[in-house]
């Protein structure tokens, strides 16, 4: 069975209509549609969601994108905006443990779900195995793509603890890095998978 796309979002459990009218647009049209969406003043409703293990309850505009919610409401700026069009993976977060693109989903699409961002990867001040592997194997240069890479890799390793190179490449194929050439990134994920990093 084909792996689910990061653009697929869980349906909300109740009420709010969150199906982005954006899916299916080409990127330029998507960005334009999102600019229009961001300008519209919409009513707010309460969003219940778990972010990095903490239950939250926030009044959130019905048109607020998940990335804007995480960065501007929750204050977690580790999740990066790259293309703003569902193509670069910089905005990847985990929703119920699966990688998802936060730039093309409404915040209300994750009502009742568990969202994890790169800020939640470390525990007790200790970097996760994927974070340490990126650090030790020089998997990042400017670091802009790194949070999305780390969350995509984390999603992969939870689903497949011992992936081969082909699986790693497939899992990261939605993440664009403009600096590293990917070799070190793949090595980092393999090192994290093969142990010795945690
Ligand atoms: S910013 Fe979301 S995919 Fe590029
Ligand atoms: S490290 Fe710079 S974009 Fe990937």
Report what the structure shows.
This protein has 198 residues and is of the alpha+beta class. It has a single domain, classed as Ubiquitin-like (UB roll), CATH 3.10.20. It is 31% helix and 14% strand. The chain is built from 6 helices and 5 strands, in the order H-E-E-H-E-E-E-H-H-H-H. The chain has helices spanning 27-39, 66-73, 129-136, 146-159, 165-171, 183-193, and strands spanning 44-51, 54-61, 92-95, 98-101, 114-116. The chain has a 5-stranded mixed beta sheet, sandwiched between helices. Helix 3 crosses helix 6 (183-193). The chain is globular and about 50 Å long. The site of one FE2/S2 (inorganic) cluster has 11 residues, from loops. One FE2/S2 (inorganic) cluster (FES) is lined by residues 140-146, 177-180.
Task: Give me some keywords for this one.
198 residues, alpha+beta, Ubiquitin-like (UB roll), 5-stranded mixed beta sheet, globular
Question: Could you say how many structural domains there are in total?
Answer: 1
CATH superfamily: Beta-grasp domain
The ordered string of helix (H) and strand (E) elements is HEEHEEEHHHH
The name of the CATH architecture is Roll
At CATH level 3, the topology is Ubiquitin-like (UB roll)
Poorly predicted runs of 5 or more residues = 11-24
Shape call: globular
**Helix content range of the residues, please?**
25-40%
Spatial ordering of strands, largest sheet:
2-1-5-3-4
Strand content: 5-15%
